[in-house]
Amino acid sequence: MHDSFSLSRGKLASFLTCQRQFQLRYVQRLPWPAAPLAESAQEMLARGQQFHQLLQRHFLGLEVVPAAVPDETVRRWWSLFQQYRLALPHGRFLTEISLTVPLGGALLNGRFDLLILGEKDGAAFAHLFDWKTGKARSEAALRQDWQTRLYLALLAEGGAALLPPEQTLLPEQIAITYWYVTEPDAPRTLHYNAAWHSQNWAELTVLVTQMAALDAQEAWPLTADWSACRDCAYQVYCGRQGAGRSPDSIDPDAEAIVTDTAMEPELP
Ligand code: SF4
Q: Could you tell me which CATH class the domain 5-263 is placed in?
């Protein structure tokens, strides 16, 4: 594993699902054709992407013309977004911004839908917003999710680089809000803190250390959970065809994970 190995939430999910999958996909970069998604699943993914693009346009200060949005569902989501008026703090708005932070032999990275940086009571704050078009999840589930944990950890470790030089960013000044089109009146906001960050950073360090140790091995371990193989493109390679295939369902909010692990090989 070379020094600049990058680790996104999708790659983390792959490693936690199956270390062999991670090795085949991201270390050996072995392409393998995945079964094409059903039309309905492709439509869900495309709608999610359109909605994100719409909000990016909005937060860039560009006009959004609903009549120009061809998909009726996306138009309805946009209408809900306007109707429910998510409370946003005052500050500097950054859309679709990426942040990369080194950890051991890896570079952790995340891409944020919307990041608002500002100052409150004399201290800098960073508030992330993430748009979701799939089934709403509880705060408890989101708290455990590696997207939440990685993104908050990235900001705690590297967010100060986005602030003026004299400012610092404490974990207590960082938050993330998930807004679901399926529950537009109930955004989920999670507030970070030093204890949670210590735990997250320690676990990320363990994962990166495990990857570095496995790098010396010719074949990384296969998952013991055969159900994970049902969504994996490497079944034949591993001799796991007996796992069968999952019904063609998809979580549109797992777009990064889907793209990383199931749909198509990622380029270096
Ligand atoms: S088929 Fe199963 S064991 Fe093989 S890489 Fe995929 S998840 Fe891992």
A: alpha beta
